[in-house]
């Protein structure tokens, strides 16, 4: 067995931190949408902002999935 370099633990910690951010954004999605709307808004404005937020959050989740499950060479 070879020695573990500093890159492996830092990569794991980076992916873990990114996963925590993605989960937090999914849980607080409603609050984030309300924060970007004016105090008085219509359901159409809410729906429009919701469709703008969803692709960004999905992209971050895919980033974690692709780089977290990527097959690593030995």
TrEMBL record:
It is found in: Membrane. The keyword Membrane applies. It is a multi-pass membrane protein. Keywords: Cilium biogenesis/degradation, Membrane, Transmembrane, Transmembrane helix. One of its GO terms (biological process) is protein localization to ciliary transition zone. Pfam families: TMEM107. The keyword Membrane applies. The chain crosses the membrane at residues 52-69. GO terms for cellular component: membrane; MKS complex. Its main location: membrane. This is Transmembrane protein 107.
